[in-house]
Design a protein that fits this description.
By secondary structure, the protein is mainly beta. 0% of the residues lie in helices and 55% in strands.
Length: 126
């Protein structure tokens, strides 16, 4: 089992920046992928980006729509993934979810992930 605890959501204004965090605990002794998804009101959950990892290194992949605006980083020692979001707009308003994929590969479909956090509301006003 993997437990995920997210933090960092809030109410912001257009142009603001925000960093979300997600800490994993439990079965964290083997390499696994961590990802961010978001779900806007009335829309399907969408992939934001993911970090895969192995003892020899890792990779980060982004959804095209957030490239250059969002940055994912990961602290392996802390089992934590971060999502730095810059130049936020109302279109970024969503609940942001952290998810874990134990197969540790690049996947963009939420149902292919094994665990997910409680979600963090991010609301951006114009």
């Amino acid at each position: 089992q993997v437990q995920l605890v997210e933090s960092g959501g809030g109410l912001l204004k257009a142009g603001d920046s925000l960093r979300l965090s997600c800490a994993a605990s439990g079965r964290t002794f083997s390499p696994y992928a961590m990802a961010w998804f978001r779900q806007a009101p009335g829309k399907e959950r969408e992939f934001v980006g993911t970090s895969t990892w192995s003892w020899s290194g890792g990779n980060i992949f982004y959804e095209d729509s957030v490239k250059g605006q969002f940055t994912i980083s990961r602290d392996i020692a802390k089992n934590t993934i971060y999502l730095q979001m810059n130049s936020l707009t109302p279109a970024d308003t969503a609940v942001y979810y952290c998810e874990v994929n134990l197969t540790n590969d690049y996947r963009v479909a939420g149902h292919e992930y094994d665990y997910w956090g409680q979600g963090n509301q991010v609301t951006v006003s114009s």
